[in-house]
Amino acid sequence: PKMKTLDLHNTKHDDVELKVINFLNWQDPPVRIITGKSERMQFIVEGVVKKYGYVCYHESTLNPGALIVSEKEW
Asked: Per residue of the chain (74 residues), what is the pLDDT tens digit?
């Protein structure tokens, strides 16, 4: 199945946290969050992801503008 994706392009930084919360409340990892290259946006997303007890990493070195959210590996 295709991974659920949240695209944050054209989202104001002030709205990012709420959008990510609403997305993670309804989706189970792994999911993709497209942030673009904004380090500030990635920082905000990473903060929300940590609150859920999940981890995130760049999808690939070729696409640093997308984060993959997954459950913690123990």
From this structure: 789 999 999 999 999 999 999 999 999 999 999 999 999 999 999 999 999 999 999 999 888 899 999 998 75
Cβ neighbours for 55, distance < 8 A, ≥ 6 positions apart: 49, 69, 70, 71, 72, 73
Please, what is the angle between helix 39-51 and helix 13-26, to 10°? 40
Which neighbouring-strand residues pair with 55? 70
Instruction: For residues 59 and 22, give the distance between their C-alpha atoms in angstroms, rounded to a whole number.
Output: 21
